[in-house]
Amino acid sequence: MAELTIAQALNAGLASALEEWEQALLMGEDIGRTGGVFRITDGLRDRFGPDRVIDTPVAESGIVGVGFGMAVAGMRPILEMQFMGFSYPAVDQIINHVSRIRHRSRHRFTAPLVIRIPYGGGIGAAEHHSESAEAIYAHTPGLKVVVPSRPHDAKGLLLAAVEDPDPVIFLEPIRLYRSVKEEVGEAPIRVAIGSAAVERQGSDVTLISYGAMMKESRLAAAAMAEEGIGVELIDLRTLVPLDVETIVRSVDKTGRAVVVTEAPRTAGFASEIVTVIQEHCLYALHAPIRRVTGWDTVFPLKRGESLYLPSVDRVVGAIRMTLEA
Amino acid sequence: MAELTIAQALNAGLASALEEWEQALLMGEDIGRTGGVFRITDGLRDRFGPDRVIDTPVAESGIVGVGFGMAVAGMRPILEMQFMGFSYPAVDQIINHVSRIRHRSRHRFTAPLVIRIPYGGGIGAAEHHSESAEAIYAHTPGLKVVVPSRPHDAKGLLLAAVEDPDPVIFLEPIRLYRSVKEEVGEAPIRVAIGSAAVERQGSDVTLISYGAMMKESRLAAAAMAEEGIGVELIDLRTLVPLDVETIVRSVDKTGRAVVVTEAPRTAGFASEIVTVIQEHCLYALHAPIRRVTGWDTVFPLKRGESLYLPSVDRVVGAIRMTLEA
Amino acid sequence: TLRLYRAMVFARAYDRKSMSLQRQGRLATYAPFEGQEAAQVGAAAALEPDDWLVATYRDAAAMWMQGYPLELLFAGRTGHESGGRPPDHVNVMPPSITVGGHMVHAVGLAWAERLRGSSRIAMTMFGDGATSEGDFHEAMNFAGVFGVGVVFFCQNNGWAISLPRSEQTASETIAEKAIAYGMPGVQVDGNDLFAVYQAAREAVDRARDGGGPTLIEAVTYRIGPHTTADDPGRYRESAEAEDWARRDPLERVRIFLSERDRWTEEWQADVESRTFDEVERAIAHAESLYPPDASHLFDAVFESPTAPLDRQRAELEALLGDED
Amino acid sequence: TLRLYRAMVFARAYDRKSMSLQRQGRLATYAPFEGQEAAQVGAAAALEPDDWLVATYRDAAAMWMQGYPLELLFAGRTGHESGGRPPDHVNVMPPSITVGGHMVHAVGLAWAERLRGSSRIAMTMFGDGATSEGDFHEAMNFAGVFGVGVVFFCQNNGWAISLPRSEQTASETIAEKAIAYGMPGVQVDGNDLFAVYQAAREAVDRARDGGGPTLIEAVTYRIGPHTTADDPGRYRESAEAEDWARRDPLERVRIFLSERDRWTEEWQADVESRTFDEVERAIAHAESLYPPDASHLFDAVFESPTAPLDRQRAELEALLGDED
Ligand SMILES: Cc1ncc(C[n+]2csc(CCOP(=O)(O)OP(=O)(O)O)c2C)c(N)n1
Ligand SMILES: Cc1ncc(C[n+]2csc(CCOP(=O)(O)OP(=O)(O)O)c2C)c(N)n1
Ligand SMILES: [Mg+2]
Ligand SMILES: [Mg+2]
Is the beta carbon of D158 within 6 A of some atom in ligand 2? Predict the structure, then answer.
């Protein structure tokens, strides 16, 4: 088994998807000749040809809408939005068409497609390049939403998403593309959509996060461990459908919870997690569940980024407050 | 003072906005000659002329994007999306441009515009005509989101929105357009953005809702009163900025809360309300806060609507469970 | 010709009957197509039975021509989702309610068929108003760049609800918009069955032969209101509609046929009355459909329901249980 | 001419200097415009000082021509929001990072000016790739229908990142897309300063005189990479760039001037070195800007912060307080 980054694991996953399903194809801006601005599709056009790795005009609504039509006709398109901020022009196609054709046609027509969306800040990018709007997609019935934070999950969830008979929004944490390495099997592994991972056992407090923020969460959990505080760390991996059981089991045990996301606070997905916990575990709670999130401000440019993104210190601080409450 | 419906109050509010601000203008599909599909702009084109009540081509992104440019140049455009489901093509303009120009330009350029969006189900409409996606806009930093449930607030919030120096998403509960009547002053009244209304005092449980669902909430509160149960009913009126004080004051008193919205449950605005309550009132809570919401399914057509929309029975049931817990 | 004329008569009878059914409260809002029968029948007639049709709320005649059962059209209009599910051999998408969003789908459908080596093509129908949406542009551009076998069939019926064609776009014709995408564009008299059929036929053949997309503008007119909720009196002179009524697409073919002694009043009356019967049966069937229940709501969100959906479904079933 | 040539020399020096600054890590990703100087300088030169300019990340030369201060261009590129705030008398929007979304804004700006009786017009600059976005279509259509005084200035530089113009759209030229909107469209040699200026001048005058919008396609070439993060070697032959380098827009004007003895090496060297100094001062100024703090984040969300924002700001300030 090779040590791969998330970027490499995704590349390997896409390659094995193209091998496994002849109906699979990739479509997006600059994914062919250049292999994508993040090189996730590097080499795939040469290997599978321009009919299966398609460079499109600059038109996100078209990419999703055309991909949707292909899916209805039996293909398994894997579409790339270059950055999450550029998925907004496709929101109408995603909400009004992709998410509901199965319902509208009572299963006659379906959209087994995957929309890959690199998201999140921390790379000092230009405006619109650091969005974390997963809540929009998580709030849309008919969509599944997954977000890996490790190479193995990246490949496994990607293949599960391509295999899934329904549309899957596949969020990729830009900041972690090349910062985490781990052994990833050559085989077309699967990671089940809808199952969270308890990364670290602990009995004092439950720390819940996903995607890029798992980095800060892991560091915070490790820091607390040094002080002898047991943090149970959960990587959701899937936002929809949410693995409520795993969350509830943990909080019933610890009685305290902190949720970490980088999206703006108001109506972010963190609120959904908090709500589910209080619905199921209220009587077990010793302290209010704390959200560590981005602010309700526009995502700042490079020099202001560190003020916006939750830091390890912020996570640690929230854990402390929860323990002291 | 005249008894007006919400539709009439909005029409009066738009007229007085056009009188009060020469920079105000209306733009949208079919708002001129026909006065809008809901007749909210009825008669305004004849009265203020086609330069100030503009019928546009069928292009929502264009309406918002062009309106945005007008606002930057000093106008106060009041834009209409014919139905919320048709505001999705404009989401990119709203999120990427309207909401953040003030931040991007450090106050040099601003977008003092209002986007009127009729929303919600219950009218047996066709697909895409019953959306309740307020969470998308509430989650976007830089936008204010208001939603009246009564004629007086409809006019007062509308004028406050037009006067506001920042972009306001103005949600109109279709189902209540003509079902509620009340006295509305001729004067250009204002209802402050950001202040919720305690419609009914009670000490047993806090019932929180907004927009169209205020109807079921009022009936439920009345029904409980007959049984001698005191429901404190809060009409949020504004989702962003949220009137946290009013909510917290009430729940600290009652120790129980039920939140009613018609949007899909997962990551809906109800989750934000629940989260804010548990952050501030956890120790005062006697029971889990309950959400009465739409389901995480596609909004059904006419014959299935009653299964989807929260009914008075559902609200009453949730209140009972909260009291019994 | 007789076959197509029969279809037009059927369509006209269906449309008028639907209007009266709506007034009786038996249908939700209905979007009549009277005046556009030649456009819809002529265009659909050029398709093979298994070609894709991606049309709108106003294209019932074309959808019916392509095999969409009458009772399903009614099912949708009585507010029942089962109306969105055509029989397995019928490749017609449920009518698009959003304006403009469906044309890109036709591009994807036709492209996929080509990738899979099938000879199926796709036709998409839309109105003059839909050409203003960004998605029209993206659909046309994708089709042009990738040479996809799609027929873009625009029924320019003069109005988009209350907006006249002249204020919808400043181009002289809609057909000429094809130039912007490097594809052929043709304008035809949409009330001339033969002209429409011929133009559609050429476009369909070109698409099937790998010749790429075509834009057809069929100039016609919406004789009735936009929908049963609309009042044209607010935005247009009745004289305009009367004027167009004189160019009735059915009448033109009727004359053609009767001159050749291939038409009689009895025959027409017979077709009409049979249509009314068929419509009655169809609406009755639609009205007799199972009343939606919890599973109706929950079992088509995904192929198999998720745990959170099962919990919500249980919640709803408990509520329904309480009620009785 | 000398004034404009001077501007081109300045632009070239600024662009090259920026590339090296980026390599030194002093700028975030930078999008070079080498090869497009004539297009940007020629078009902007046709504007009045207070006309609106709505351009992109690649149009620094045009923005500077229209009064956008150098240090602000750098401020943005060092990752500081203050770069988005031009002086009050400068009507230039911050550069559009999203492709396609900004053209509709120009339509609104020009329309508003007309409604307020001002003679200001708006020019929007965009690339060949941007013409594929739905918003390009909606902007052009609105401008056409309402006869808004906007100049749509497209720099067709052959590539949209890795996609060649030929695969961006199937229309022969981008200029001819104007037909679809009933507006004049012209294609000019984007490397010919005089041709660009003349075409822009005509369009600007037409817009100002109430003659409505114009689409200009300036055919040019992006000599450098898409941005400093891009590697053109992955998608195009270097021969192509070398070929275009021979059609250098500056060289053409230089020859014209020197033939008339209005150009000397000393003069050019002097302009360049002064540019480098100016650039140095500008970047230094940008780097010396106040480091963003909590208020920087929170005080420009709305005109006056809301209660929830004040609470969040206090949270952040408490955290920052803890750190020191
Ligand atoms: C995206 C979107 N915007 C607005 C509407 C509301 N609407 C329904 S039909 C219509 C007019 C469409 O006119 P046209 O395309 O000419 O078709 P016609 O109704 O004339 O057949 C509008 C604006 C919609 N359904 N979808
Ligand atoms: C809506 C949107 N989609 C995608 C991108 C990513 N992107 C940035 S520049 C670019 C290519 C634009 O090409 P063109 O319009 O020709 O301008 P050029 O860069 O050549 O000047 C793309 C796809 C974006 N910024 N915005
Ligand atoms: Mg029409
Ligand atoms: Mg380009």
Answer: no
Could you give the 3-state DSSP secondary structure of residue A271?
helix
Residue to mutate among D72, D115, D296, with most B CBs inside 10 A, is D115
A52: CB partners within 8 A, 6+ apart? A18, A24, A25, A26
What does the block give as tokens for A71? 């899916």
Cite the beta strand spans of C190-272 per DSSP E. Answer: 214-219
Distance, CA of B30 to CA of B220 (rounded, Å): 37
- pLDDT of B132 above 60: yes
* Contact between residue D129 and residue A57 where contact means Cβ atoms under 8 Å apart: yes
In the block, tokens 């086609």 appear at B50
The gap from C-alpha D85 to its chain's centroid, in whole angstroms, comes to 15
**pLDDT tens digits for D118-159?**
999 999 999 999 999 999 999 999 999 999 999 999 999 999
Option in C136, C169, C181 nearest D181 (CB): C169
- What is chain A's length? 325
Taking the C-alpha atoms of residue D284 and residue C41, their distance in angstroms, rounded to an integer, is 70
Task: Provide the β-strand partners of residue A30.
Answer: none
Residues of chain A predicted below pLDDT 50: none
- Average pLDDT of the residues in D241-249: 96
Arithmetic mean of pLDDT over chain C? 96
User: Chain D window 115-134: which residues touch A at a Cβ cutoff of 8 Å?
Assistant: 129-130, 132-134
Amino acid at A317: G
A103 Cβ contact partners less than 8 Å away, ≥ 6 residues apart: A142, B297, B298, C81, C300, C301
Q: Which residues, in sequence order, are bridge partners of residue B260? A: B292
What is the amino acid identity at position D51?
D
Predicted pLDDT at C47? 98
Structure tokens at A264: 């703006």
- Ranges of beta strands (E only) in chain D are 52-54, 122-127, 150-156, 159-160, 163-164, 185-189, 214-219
- What angle, 0 to 180 degrees and rounded to 10, lies between the N-to-C axes of helices B312-324 and C307-323? 100
pTM higher than the cut 0.95:
yes
CB contact under 8 A, C145 and D133: no
What is the number of other CB atoms lying within 10 angstroms of the CB of residue A84? Answer: 23
pLDDT average, residue stretch B22-35: 98
Give chains near D: 3+ CB pairs under 8 A: A, B, C
The C-alpha of B193 sits at a distance from chain C's nearest C-alpha, in angstroms, of 32
Q: What is the dihedral of CA B15, B20, B22, B28, to 10 degrees?
A: -30
Amino acid at A77: P
What ipTM does this complex have?
Answer: 0.98
φ/ψ (deg, to 5) at D271: -60, -45
Task: Indicate left, alpha or beta for C156 from its phi (over 0: left) and psi (-120 to 50: alpha).
Answer: beta
Per DSSP, the residues of A156-201 read HHHHHHHHSSS-EEEEEEGGGTTT-EEEE-SS-----TT--EEEE-
Express each pLDDT in B17-27 by its tens digit.
999 999 999 99
C266: left (phi over 0), alpha (psi -120 to 50) or beta: alpha
Q: Coil, strand, or helix at residue D135?
A: helix
CA proximity to A43, closest of A67, A79, A14, A6: A14
Contact by Cβ (8 Å): A33, C72 = no
Task: For strands C122-127 and C150-156, give the pairing.
Answer: parallel
Annotation marks residue A129 as catalytic: yes
Q: What phi and psi, each to the nearest 5 degrees, are found at residue C273?
A: -65, -35
Q: Which of D103, D77, B111, D300 is nearest to A127 (CA)?
A: D77
Distance D99 CA to ligand 2 centre (A): 5
Q: Which of B58, B41, B118, B37 is nearest to C226 (CA)?
A: B37
Q: In this structure, are residues A203 and A171 in contact, taking their beta carbons and an 8 Å threshold?
A: no
Number of other residues whose CB lies within 10 A of the CB of residue C251: 12
